[in-house]
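To: structure subgroup
Subject: Chain for Friday's discussion

All,

I'm putting the inputs and outputs inline so they're searchable in the archive.
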Amino acid sequence: MKQQKKFNTDQQQEHIAEHKVEQREGHEFASVDEVLRFDASQTKVPAGIAQRLQESSKDLPPPPRSWWERIFKR
């Protein structure tokens, strides 16, 4: 006798989401940058961590200008 799985609505949605992730795994990327951009677009940063990052980076000096910016953008 086969056991049938019975899902409630939350489990169904989770199962569907997992199935969609499995379908996306076949994507090929042209470069490492493309992989990182794709991952960043799929990953949600928790609000607490985002706030801590903003607070810790607000006192950092701006990055130094490159040589071409110093020459051409006066």
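Points worth raising on Friday:
The helical segments are 9-24, 32-42, 47-57, 67-72.
Residues 20 and 26 are 11 Å apart (CA to CA).

D.
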